[in-house]
Specification:
This protein is mainly β. It is built from one helix and 16 strands. The protein folds into three domains: about 60 residues, SH3 type barrels (Roll), CATH 2.30.30; about 60 residues, OB fold (Dihydrolipoamide Acetyltransferase, E2P); about 60 residues, OB fold (Dihydrolipoamide Acetyltransferase, E2P) (Beta Barrel). Helices cover about 0% and strands about 55% of the residues. The strands form three sheets. Strands 1-6-2-3-4-5 form a six-stranded antiparallel sheet, with no helix packed on it. Strands 9-8-7-10-11 form a five-stranded antiparallel sheet. A five-stranded antiparallel sheet has the order 14-13-12-15-16, with no helix packed on it.
């Protein structure tokens, strides 16, 4: 058992047989009373976010999770299929668990998957990924001096704003946390 005061962002724990991962931690002390710990946590089985409150002396069960690399294969309805490159075992994650991360999946790319008791729970994206520009208006010479943007569509279907000098077939780095353009890549 681990004390709730040790729960910080990214730490996994279990309550009533359900695994959670801490998103936000807040410790509050009220006058003469005992301190309370408020946690915003993601349910690792269904992806929902809940708030939990504990008294400072409470303890929760630790959860042993593993991060494993897996290769993205294909989409099958609402499920996204992955393969372990070492054992060639295939498994899937539902779109509910991906939490809108599926727009960054590229066939053949390797991603980190969080496992608990041999069950895939969530996907961990890299901070940035490279995509090819599929469609945008043409760039005009001399437009690079002005900090202006235009709409572009990437090869994965994602639409974002890019600088005016970006052309079709250019490769760009995209921040997966915000979905925004970072830089052009050669």
């Amino acid at each position: 058992m681990i004390p709730v005061t040790d729960l910080r962002a990214g730490k996994a724990f279990e309550v009533d047989g359900i695994p959670f991962i801490v998103i936000q931690y807040k410790h509050t002390k009220m006058g003469r009373g005992t301190a309370s710990i408020k946690i915003k946590a993601r349910n690792l089985e269904n992806g929902s976010i809940t708030e939990k409150t504990f008294i400072s002396g409470a303890k929760v069960a630790p959860v042993e999770t593993q991060l494993k690399k897996a290769q993205y294969l294909y989409q099958d309805g609402d499920d996204f299929c992955f393969m372990d490159p070492k054992t060639f075992n295939q498994f899937s994650l539902s779109s509910d668990l991906l939490d809108d991360q599926e727009k960054f999946l590229k066939e053949g790319e390797e991603f980190k998957i969080l496992f608990w008791n041999d069950k895939a729970l969530s996907l961990e994206l890299p901070i940035s990924m490279v995509f090819k520009i599929k469609d945008t208006s043409p760039g005009v010479k001399g437009n690079s001096a002005v900090n202006s943007f235009k709409k572009a569509v990437l090869d994965n279907g994602l639409s974002l704003n890019v600088p005016l000098f970006i052309n079709i077939d250019d490769k760009v780095k995209v921040d997966t946390r915000t979905g925004q353009y970072m830089e052009r890549v050669n």
